[in-house]
Structure formats: structure tokens, C-alpha cells
């Protein structure tokens, strides 16, 4: 793995030369997979080089902010795949039910090194900083959930996709490189299955009415279905709500159960080997969303400390919303009414119910959904908070840079000023008539997900 930009020593400089006895341990937290995982392969490389055992562990905290049974179910299905797939490589996996930084620091006392993956939200970064401060052994972070490492792509918060896209374009091909699993020196054959993992019903919240299975093995199958069945017309149909022509990768990406690098490389290979030259728009749109748009969201979360707050919006957006704070709202709803899909708008209600029942929402409807929360809430700060609460509570891919950037986009982030109007000011506007004009069969979506 010759991509040094992915690797960072988090420990104080004095620990860099220390190699205390003990195994190398990979603290898996943001990348719950064994394929295309640069952090795992770096840990294997380090254990091979030092001729010490390797152990992979995950720390399951029962009180992760906004997480409920649906999120834990998806995560635990992913961890079951990890346990099985690591055992096939002769690498032991251990699940601890305790604070992630607490488990990592405790295990660091008997390790020669802690290797970990990278997250971009506040809590993920705080965990790694705490471990780096308290660990007696070196702590190495390896970035593996982006194609282009966040600081390599840009050294500052980017204004929009237009400013970010050329920066990504200059770096993309350098990092679009396959990653093969390394043989583990201490592999003595497949390991016996580990102890059963906890059950999701131990955690609060209702199960999904329409389950969406988690895990890297299921993610790989979903990716194959997408490439074979939907990639060729992805640009044309991805935004049509009643067709559900999306990639369905967002939850797997959020939990690190599939790598964006694997998606990109397999999509490029499939496009070149199977699709006709006229089908180029599908692969172009996929790479734009997977790399440019998704990594722009990581840029926002990484460089803007107020990414989950109304105060993190651009100054122009907050100014125009302030000018229209007192505008009359023809409709207003409480958070409880929004949660229950109890509005006058059948399209919005259907989108909310899709999220509640399935843990997913069609991408175009997600934009419409956020705009209407702004329109139907007495003030813009409360609207922003409500959108985040609902998104993080019900979406399988909630609590994610894409979710934070998506909510903020509804309030002007990564966008430009538009024609001024009531309530929205210069924020981009969407309405039900626009849905009806754009999608002739929008009623099919409404019937499918009606309360």
C-alpha cells in the first residue's frame, strides 16, 4: 500500500520510536469491513513486519448519540460478516461492549501498536484524540473511507462542488488504485467461529417494518445488482422517486461496510467491459456523487466545527433567512406532527413514512422533505434542528457527513442565492407542483409509502 497520505501517526512524537512488546491491534470503528480496508491491510503489514500477532477489535457503545435498534441491527449484521471473513484469514476478532476510547486505551497497554481507521464527525475525532493522548504505545490512523484523503483533497472548507471538483480531479487517479489483501504471517488456518454477537433487540427503538440487511457481503451483492441492472440508466432515472433507481449504497458507506474505492473501481471496470459507449452518463454521474459530492460532505464536516448547527451555514444564507424570519407561514407543524407524517402534503408524508418504515428515503425526496421543514417551522434555527433530529433518528445513514451536508444544503450550504421569495429569502425553493411537473408518476410513490 504505497499511499502515504492515508497514514498519520496520532501519538505524541516521543512514542514514534517506541515498540513495546505485544500484538498489533486494529481498532476497527468507522470501517466495518475486511475488503478494501487500508487500515486493516496496514495493520496486517505491521504485524508481518514485526512478527507479532494481529488482533482486530470493535467497541460497541450502547449509547451512541441518536442510534437506535435499526442502526444497531445494521451494524451488528456488518460485524457478523467481519467476524466470519477475518476468521477465514486466520485473524481473530473481538467485540467489546464498552466505551470505544476506553477499550482502545486499555488494550494499548498490552499492544505494540494501535492502528485505527478515520471518522470525520466530532465524536469520532474526539475518540481518536483521547486514545492518542492516553495510549502508552503508538497510535496510527489510516484513512480508508474516502477515495482522496480529506486533507489531500483540500486544506480548507470548500464553498461548493464547483470549487471542490477540480481539486478532486487532480488527485483522483492517484488514489483510484486497487487494494489486495495481504497474507497474514501468523495464519494457522481458518479460526473457529467466535462467540455470538449481541442481538439488536437489546437496544431501544422499533425494528424496521421493511428490513434492509447490513454487512459487507450483502453490500457486495447489492453493488453487483446495481451495476448489472441500473448503472446504464442511472443518470436518467436516479432522481425518479417511484423507480428507486438509486445505488442503495449510502447505508453501507455510512457504516464502512463497503469502500467507495471498491464501488468506483468495480463500476469503472463494469462500464468498460460491458456497457456501450453511449452509456457513459451513468458512470460519470455515479463518480460525481460518490467522490465529488460525498467527499465534499466530508470536507464540510472536517473543516466546519459547526457542521451540525444552524450557525455553520454560510453567512449569506443566514442573513436572508433572518430577513424573512417573521414572514407568515401558511402551514406550521410541531416536531411530533412531522414525526407522524401528519401534514397536508401527501408527498412529504410519503417521504417521511419511507424513512420510518425502511430506514431510507429517495434522494430527490430528501431534498424536498428538508425544504418543507424549513417552510413549515416557525423559525429557521428550529427547522434546521428538526431536520437533523428526524434524519438522524430514522435514516440508516443518519449521523453522517452526507446527512449533515444534505440538511445544510436545504438551507443554502454548497448552493448559491436564488430569486427572493417569502420565508425562504434567497434559499432555493421547491414545491409540490414542481414534483408533479418533473415526475408524472409521483402518485405511485405516494401510494407506495402513504401513512
Task: Describe the protein's topology.
Elements: E1 7-9, E2 24-27, H1 38-50, E3 54-59, H2 69-88, E4 93-96, H3 100-108, E5 113-116, H4 122-134, E6 139-142, H5 150-153, H6 161-175, H7 216-229, H8 234-237, H9 250-254, H10 260-273, H11 280-303, H12 315-323, H13 335-339, H14 346-358, H15 363-376, H16 380-394, H17 401-410, H18 432-438, H19 442-449
Parallel strand pairs: 2-3, 2-5, 3-4, 5-6
Antiparallel strand pairs: 1-6
Helix pairs in contact: 3-4, 6-11, 10-11, 11-17, 14-15, 14-19, 15-16, 15-17, 16-17
Q: How would you briefly describe this protein structure?
A:
The chain contains 19 helices and six strands. It has helices at residues 38-50, 69-88, 100-108, 122-134, 150-153, 161-175, 216-229, 234-237, 250-254, 260-273, 280-303, 315-323, 335-339, 346-358, 363-376, 380-394, 401-410, 432-438, 442-449; strands at residues 7-9, 24-27, 54-59, 93-96, 113-116, 139-142.
